[in-house]
Design brief:
About 65% of the residues lie in helices and about 0% in strands. With about 450 residues, the protein is mainly alpha-helical. The chain has a domain of about 80 residues. It starts with a helix and ends with a helix.
Length: about 450
């Protein structure tokens, strides 16, 4: 290595020259040990975002003490995004005094987004005493978004006396969104009789987003006849988000006519995407066939992408085969990638690979990465590796980080090794953390 290159790589651990570096006992390092090697050196990086990512990876690979030490130092960081990531890392660590203290500190964070995440974390930690105590504190939070998260967390913890007391308190909350979430939590813990009166009161709520939530809850408990009038009323709501949820609700019911047929021509492409998502849940319906055939020529390529994905899920037989044949010459390259992935889902690699091969020399870097991901999804890993290898020296650190991320999806470490080896000494610490994040998947 020339002196010039050496100077450029000051700060990069010299021993990280090969992913096959031996440890002191003479054994080849495992991928997780290699990840630990990268993380250990980056611990002193001044960027708190990098430190938070490192702590999360430490937690994932079982180095809990190292993760806790870093998290304790980051919990007071001035950046909300860092404190948010601290909570995320705590979710990956078993219940402990240090985690309890961190979450207790952050339950009073000035940013409601962080407090919401604390409530989410408590829901995922199960029926632990300290999680319940934090939720009891947050049930009185001034921000309704936090109280919504408290109700959702209670639904994950299941039935216990303290959780029921929290829900009883929140079912009279002044915010109707909170009360809908309480009803959904009751449904999740099996207390359907407690959910019904809440839903009955809310089905005449002035907010359309609340009423569509009521309809969704009715569908979950099988009260379809109670849901239909609400959905029929809201299909023409001026809010496209509400109309989209109406479409998806009909997918849960399993009905395409007449509402989905009407919404397939909605002026907002978000709603039309939701129509396609609904069609993915409905089987053996001529109405679904007609809707997908109509939307295969939608002016928005995102809608056409979803049509291709829906065809892949339904199996490439009959009308879906005809739709995919039409879409494989679509002017939008991402749509054609989706078609290839759809073919791959049914094992038609011979149909998928030619589509991707015609696109892999496209000038857009993000599309090349998308193509590499598609090759990996359909099992043609050998065709993905050259694309990724060619991007290892890309001048944009974000691209190299994505290369590491995509490489982590390759299930064979021997094939991924050369790509990750080319990135592990990158000057950008974010890229090196991405390499570590990829390595721990093996």
């Amino acid at each position: 290595m020339s002196s010039n290159v050496s100077n450029q790589n000051i700060g990069v651990r010299p021993l990280q020259r090969s992913l096959d570096r031996l440890n002191l006992s003479g054994n080849i390092l495992t991928p997780k040990e290699k990840a630990r090697d990268i993380l250990d050196y980056l611990q002193t990086d001044p960027d708190p975002d990098i430190k938070a990512r490192i702590a999360i990876v430490y937690a994932k690979i079982g180095h809990i003490d190292l993760a806790r030490t870093m998290l304790e130092g980051l919990q007071k960081d001035l950046k909300m995004s860092v404190r948010f990531m601290v909570v995320d890392a705590c979710r990956k660590i078993e219940n402990s005094d240090s985690v309890r203290l961190i979450l207790q500190k952050l339950q009073t964070d000035p940013d409601p987004v962080v407090r919401e995440r604390v409530a989410d974390a408590c829901g995922e930690m199960g029926d632990s005493k300290f999680a319940r105590l934090i939720l009891q504190k947050l049930q009185n939070d001034l921000d309704p978004g936090v109280r919504v998260c408290v109700a959702e967390a209670c639904g994950k913890i299941r039935n216990s006396d303290s959780i029921c007391l929290i829900l009883q308190k929140l079912q009279t909350d002044p915010d109707s969104f909170v009360r809908v979430c309480v009803a959904e939590a009751y449904i999740k813990i099996g207390a359907i009789d407690l959910a019904r009166p809440i839903l009955k009161k809310l089905q005449s709520d002035p907010l359309p987003a609340v009423r569509v939530g009521v309809a969704e809850a009715y569908i979950k408990i099988g009260a379809i006849d109670s849901a239909r009038p609400i959905l029929q009323e809201l299909q023409t709501d001026p809010d496209s988000f509400v109309r989209g949820r109406v479409a998806e609700a009909y997918g849960e019911i399993g009905e395409a006519r007449p509402i989905l047929q009407k919404l397939q021509t909605d002026p907002d492409s978000f709603v039309r995407v939701c129509v396609v998502k609904a069609c993915r849940k409905i089987v053996n319906s001529d109405s679904v066939r007609l809707i997908l055939q109509k939307l295969q020529t939608d002016p928005d390529p995102v809608v056409r992408e979803h049509v291709a994905e829906a065809c892949g899920e339904r199996g490439v037989i009959g009308f879906t085969r005809l739709i995919l044949q039409k879409l494989q010459t679509d002017p939008d390259p991402v749509v054609r990638v989706c078609v290839a992935e759809a073919y791959g889902k049914i094992g038609a690699i011979d149909l998928a690979c030619p589509i991707l091969q015609t696109l892999q020399n496209h000038p857009y870097t993000e599309l090349k990465l998308r193509i590499a991901e598609a090759y990996i999804k359909i099992g043609a890993i050998a065709l993905a590796c050259p694309i990724l290898q060619a991007l290892v020296n890309h001048p944009d650190a974000k691209v190299k980080a994505r290369v590491a991320e995509v490489s982590g999806k390759i299930r064979d470490i021997d094939l991924a090794r050369t790509i990750l080896e080319g990135l592990q000494n990158d000057l950008d610490p974010g890229v090196r953390v991405s390499v570590a994040e990829a390595l721990i998947k093996y």
